[in-house]
Amino acid sequence: MCGIVGLVNGHAVATDLVTALGRLEYRGYDSAGIAVAGPGFAVRKVAGRANGLKDGLDASFGGQAGIAHTRWATHGRAEMRNAHPHVYEGVAVVHNGIIENHAELRAGLAADGHEFASDTDSEVIPHLIAAARARGAAPMEAVRETCGALHGAYAIAVLFEDAPDHLVVARQGSPVMVARGEGAAAVASDPTALAGFCDEYTALEDGDIAELGREGVVIRNGAGSLANRDWQAVTAAEEAGAMAGFTTYTRAEISAQAAALVRTDDALAARVLTPQIAAAERLVVVACGSSLYAASTARAWIEELSGVPCDLEIASEYRTRNAPLSRGTVALLVSQSGETADTLAVQTMFRAKDVPVVAVVNVAHSQMARDAELVWPTRAGREMGVAATKSFTCQLLALVRFGLALGMARGAVTAETLARIETEIASLPAICTAAELLEPQLKSIAQRIAYENEALFIGRGPAAAIAAEGALKLKELSYIHAEAYAAGELKHGPIALIRENSPVVVCGGDHAEKTLANAEEVRSRGAAVISLVGAADAERFGPISAEMVVLPGVGLGLIFAQAVAVQLISVHAAEALGCDVDRPRNLAKSVTVE
Ligand code: G6P
Fold first, then answer.
1. Same CATH topology for 3-233 and 243-413?
2. If you take atom 8 of ligand 1, which residue's CA is the nearest one?
């Protein structure tokens, strides 16, 4: 999280920096700041979004090199005093990552008389660099020396008051790109931020330190040797989809799901499994957030279609345990952004153990995509809303297609199953559109949940995972406390939460008769059962439901319809409570810290 950008180009860079920073806002929007070089530094910080920086870029911001930052708070509250850039004695720094030994470094610096202006971990960096400079180190050496003292993850860009036409950039753990163009050089967390400012970019590797000036970019690796890297064209980020008459991007993106599914299926048609992947004896699927719930939803489908056992793992947990890997393991990483820190850390672990990695990823230029043996793409398009919507259903589709491809390669799919799945897949876009038409009913359910200010979501099999995604979406967007449980687990504790009128969203589907029994159990304790079921179950669920939404689709299709339904409930609950649907508090779209 956090986005950093820097630019040197022989012109006043401040306005371009703010433009580039705005393109990185999905990485965090707690505060924003800019520092432009000399004479002295011109610095401006604002609480909240990057575009707030625009007003107030007066004549003092005429410098031709500068750095900027959009923050997702890790250490120190989301307040102005903790906004980057952090400046100390002629050194300005923007940082993405976490410095794990900051307390120890801060104590050492304080003992030497350094005084700190923020509560951040990042602020030790300019202090350490300035201290190295004071001992006589040149800018690059001062940064190298400082990096040697830092533990944790960082992408930093450094501006020096006494070298006002250069930037120094270093990376360990956090993604960062350096770019060059005619008389220009730049740095950014995401290369698409630099469209229009530079022509080509390359990703720094761990341990790299680069010097950027109008004459170009010099990269040295961790050993201090000059590094030759492949450069790629800088391209603009895919345009955000139109709002199409909706008031939020998130709502528009829910509506864009049908088209996104068609694009994804087209892209997947061209993909084939490598022989090693096709021979998988066990799959380990690793992800975070909604991507984890997409994997959880699809796990049973993958196992059923391919006959290959499929373990599901939370990336942040899996990376901390030394799980034994059986022979023939293939890893499946699922990520919208392709840069979630924990999932990337797992990718590095797999690489070290020679486990082939399939990346189910939406951002084609992401590190996860670059480093994978096979990219199994989603084509959701750019998601402007922080909460996953169309990327989630595209992941579901990609995972079904993966299970099918694996099963086909192993001869495990009968002609009959193939025909059934293909028919079901072909119907998905229309099912999403039809589910959306139930919005008025879903809106009234959202209002009931908003009024009660809590919700429990239950389901079985894939629908249990949709229940989990529903509870997550509701929390993310409306800040209403929501829990999800596999319906059969309810009586082992969470049923104690039920009181008169507790909203319990029941996702029907496989084993509906058992889920129905669980719905009865909560109803007899006073809960208001809200059923999201297919037409086949309407008769059974109707009598016990306070509200029932009869969704289109059966099997796969019903799961996609339920996904749309829980998205719409969450959006409307958020709107009922006056929440910022596209930019929920405390969240970021791209989670680049552990
Ligand atoms: C953040 C986003 C979620 C997303 C999760 C995993 O929490 O707000 O929408 O599901 O990260 O991100 P990834 O990019 O790996 O799918």
1. no
2. 589
The pLDDT of residue 137:
97
Ordered alpha helix ranges (H), 215-340: 249-255, 257-269, 275-278, 289-306, 315-318
Q: Give tens-digit pLDDT for 254-285.
A: 999 999 999 999 999 989 999 999 999 999 99
Fold of 243-413: Rossmann fold (3.40.50)
Pair 251, 242: CB distance under 8 Å: no
Closest C-alpha among 51, 50, 55, 16 to residue 36: 16
Binding site membership of 362 for ligand 1 (Cβ less than 6 Å):
no
**Which ligand 1 atom is the nearest neighbour of the CA of 290?**
10
- Cβ contact 76:118 at 8 Å: yes
Do residues 8 and 165 lie in contact, with contact meaning Cβ atoms separated by under 8 Å? yes
- Ligand 1: centre distance to CA 554 (Å): 28
| Topology of the domain covering 436-584 | Rossmann fold (3.40.50)
* Whether residue 507 lies in the annotated active site: no
The number of the ligand 1 atom at minimal distance from the alpha carbon of 340 is: 15
* CATH code, 3-233: 3.60.20.10
Closest CA to 187 of 9, 383, 382: 9
Q: Any idea where the domains of the chain sit in the sequence? A: 3-233, 243-413, 436-584
The length of the chain in residues reads 594
Residue pair 51/22 in contact (Cβ under 8 Å)? The answer is: yes
Query: Residue 242: is its pLDDT beyond 80?
Result: no
- Calculate the CA 307 to chain-centre distance: 30
- Residue 592's pLDDT is 80
Q: Is 447 exposed, middle or buried (0-12, 13-18, 19+ CB in 10 A)?
A: middle
Cβ of residue 63 lying under 6 Å from some atom of ligand 1: no
pLDDT tens, position by position, 202-241:
999 999 999 999 999 999 999 999 999 999 999 888 777 7
CA distance 427 to 335: 25
Is the pLDDT at 1 greater than 90, yes or no? no
User: Using a 6 Å cutoff on CB, does residue 255 contact ligand 1?
Assistant: no
Does ligand 1 lie within 6 Å of residue 359's CB atom?
no
456 C-alpha vs ligand 1 centroid, how far in Å? 22
Q: What is the mean pLDDT of residues 190-208?
A: 95
Task: Output the CA angle 488-494-499, nearest 5 degrees.
Answer: 120
Q: What is the mean pLDDT of residues 521-542?
A: 97
User: What is the predicted pLDDT for the residue at 560?
Assistant: 98
Between the CA of 475 and the centroid of ligand 1 the distance, in Å, is 14
Q: What is the pLDDT of residues 354-377, one digit of tens each?
A: 999 999 999 998 999 999 999 999
DSSP-based three-state secondary structure for 510 = coil
Whether 83 is in the pocket of ligand 1, judged by its Cβ within 6 Å, is: no
Please tell me the distance between residue 4's alpha carbon and the centre of ligand 1 in angstroms: 19
Q: Which of 124-128, 546-550, 589-593 has the lowest mean pLDDT?
A: 589-593
